Amino acid sequence: MARIACFVEKYNFSDQREATALQNFQRTAQRMGHEFNFLFREDIPEIPEYDAVFIRATTDPLFTSYVVSKTAWELGKKVIDDPESIQICGNKIHLYDLFEKHDVPHIPTVFLNKEDLHHKRLVEVFETLGKPIVVKAPYTSFSKYVEKVACETSFRDVAKRYFRKSDMLAVQTFMPTAFDWRVGVLNRKTLYVCKYMIPKGRWKHGAKRRGKPTFVWGRTVALKTENAPSKLKEVALKACDVIGHGLYGVDIKEFNGNYVVVEVNDNPSIYAGYEDSRNTDLYGKIIEYLVD
Amino acid sequence: MHAMKPTAFLNSSIKDFTLNLNNDYRYLKTGYYVSVHAEVLGNRVIPSSESIIDASRTPILLLKASKAKIPTLPYLVTGSVKKIISELGFPLVVFAVNPFCYDGFRIAQNRSALYRAVKSLSMNYKFAVCAQPLKGEMVSFKSVFGKCEMEGEVANISMKVFEVFRLPICKLHVQKVGKEAYLCGLQPLRMEEVLPADLEMASEEVSRMSRKGEHLVG
What we know:
The complex is a heterodimer of chains A (about 290) and B (about 220).
Chain A: E1 3-7, H1 16-31, E2 35-39, E3 52-55, H2 64-74, E4 78-80, H3 83-89, H4 92-101, E5 109-113, H5 119-129, E6 133-136, E7 146-149, H6 152-163, E8 168-173, E9 179-186, E10 189-197, E11 206-208, E12 215-217, E13 220-223, H7 230-241, E14 247-255, E15 258-266, H8 282-291
Parallel strand pairs in A: 1-2, 1-3, 3-4
Antiparallel strand pairs in A: 5-8, 6-7, 6-8, 9-10, 9-14, 10-13, 11-12, 14-15
Chain B: H1 6-10, E1 18-19, H2 30-40, E2 45-46, H3 49-55, H4 58-67, E3 76-78, H5 81-88, E4 92-96, E5 105-108, H6 111-121, E6 129-133, E7 137-144, H7 152-165, E8 169-177, E9 180-187, H8 196-211
Parallel strand pairs in B: 1-2
Antiparallel strand pairs in B: 3-6, 4-5, 4-6, 7-8, 8-9
């Protein structure tokens, strides 16, 4: 019997679908004969008492979840997400730099620093990537801090905002598609496949309603892993290979018959009735990996 | 040896030992990206991007330091004031766990001071804080390649921290209790805090390293 700690924050329970998924994890672990406890921020000193740590709170090298991950890692525990994955996936500059080095097919990307924010360079960027372009802050998650711009003025506007926190940002070609593929990968094997549909009239899976703080999300259509195109799975696994052995959600666009990686996320969202609807065994597989 | 500006290095693909000299190694800042880029290129680099993140996160700094036999005090990572009081008592020194700021610690002698400290360091309870007991006096000083203006045990800590984390320039917070000294925290320096004397010390160190046959970019 192993003791598993699942690091969560209060917001993980605010969405019923996510709360149910967390309960599914707990039930599956208990059925397999393991102990599965939710670990909140106040309980961090209890990490040494556990055998494995599973992080479900949003990860970023600046968040408490990184401290949890690194502490567990230093103590020799099995961790999802491990600190290195958080470090790489949490920073898109790091991620695309690795993709470039290892020839992972990805969306054409240019990095910009603060000194590049002048007319000549911006014209160059528009020439290489076309119009419109997508500006991405390195710390983007849940479709936030990604904006589409079509002229220099709005480009400068967005870039200035993102440069407040980060000294670099990524600029990418705009590729409109009806959906993004999401491939869940665990320990270099495909775990689940789904389509994240883009809401009507929008260009990304999660888009803010104009004038309102709420988000509108596209539908999630799950597929049986074996029914997904094999080329898609190959590209997803290749992208994860440059990062590590953990649990990842790879976003892939299908464009003119080619598969290009948009990004690899650590800590992929798992909602009951969505990602798991065609691959119900994903809970068991993750628990198995944690206690292995 | 070849010296270059960080932005030039970020656009290059030079494959060589890289010494990344910067006053501010905070995550998402240029100093961080230089180390990341060097690592992606496969270069040996000082400091590593992992050290950059870990050194400025107080609980990880203390965990790694104590593993390397650097004296530290017991610490508590939590967002709860009650838990801090019940487990550590007063007086206390509190550090931010999520460093967005340069001047990171507060001393709390009583309950209300602790509430104020936790509220501000946790950014209104959004993040956790790292509390340690205050047994002696806090000293803060600059460390350049592990060298500092302090003496005895404190200087020893400065050297050891450099051996573990390899941050060329940083500020250290150490607690002095009689003859003993304990590491408490580490922070980046503001540009204006780096004095010409520090730069001289750094350049001496750089030329010493290059005499040993190392190639430097930074």
